[in-house]
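Notes from the 1:1 (GR / supervisor)

We went over the backlog. Supervisor wanted to see one worked example end to end before approving the batch request, so GR pasted a single chain during the call. The sequence is below; no edits were made to it. Supervisor asked that the structure be written out right there so they could see what the output format looks like.
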Amino acid sequence: MEDTSEPVSLRQLRALIAVGDSGSFTGAAEQLGMSQPSVSHLVRRLEAELGQTLVVRGRDACLTPQGRAIVDVARRAVLSIDGVLRECRDMTQLKAGSVNVAVGHVTAATLLPEILRRFHKKHPELEVTVVDCVVDHIRAKLLAHEADIGLGALIAPDDSKLVVENLWDCGMALFVRDDHPLARRASVDARILAELPCIQLNPNAHAWLAISRKLIAHNIYPRVEQRAVLVSTALGLIQADMGVAMMPRIATMVMPRGIKGIPLSEPELEWPISLVRLANYPLSPAAQAFASVARDTIKACGKRAGA
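Structure output shown during the call:
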């Protein structure tokens, strides 16, 4: 047999709870900020729906045993619902919330500290968890929902599962010790890479593969003698006079004394800094706020660098 009954509403349950708490329809109306007839109408509709009297009316209003049983359960349910709604509103208003950010090692070592500083200053109530990883693992972190946003040198324009927003192409530089013969150059031709002992950073990342293809297209084959994943490792090798390193120009932000970055040209080599997220999957308000701060910070860094 088809059930033609109407669903019980939260407003009806709130009205019944208020009547039980206050002991009168007038008191319930004041508590809820409603008129007394409106409260009475809600309770009567609830009683009609359930086919039972829930409130004994008189000089005072008191609940029947079944009315008390409903209120006992409804009170817990309404408190839980109100808590979830309050939490959701706080997140929307950026009073609470968290975001997980997967960051490639180069970006984590260079741009991330300034992004975090600005974010915490603007949104002190929000939490950020940094998932630092090699840049090729960012996609997997997003797909596994271990991260809400990815930040780094990502190139995936043909990936239907991701939205990649390129924020800045900072270019490449050759990093050498201050006492290196090239240290006084204003720029250096990329062909020199074939003549110097080179330290290669994370060669399997998409951005590095794109750079390698461009160098090969110009018949340039760097003399790679060392490989490293982390910027800090590459810097240590340069300091130990183990070679020179081609790295993004943003690495100058974390250069220790004694190391200099010289812009590379001929050909111009690109190093994109991108913001990436899952396609067709909404960002939380906290994640949207982080993305906004990241865009502004990286844009400011680009202006300072003259990009």
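Supervisor's comment: The chain has a mean pLDDT of 91.
Batch request approved.
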